[in-house]
Amino acid sequence: SATSAALDASGLSGHANGAKLSITRAWWGLAGSVEIQFKGASSDTHALRLAGSGEYVGGPAIKNGATNGTATSGDLESIGASATGFIILELRKDASFTA
Question: Which residues lie across from 92 on neighbouring strands?
Answer without folding.
Answer: 22
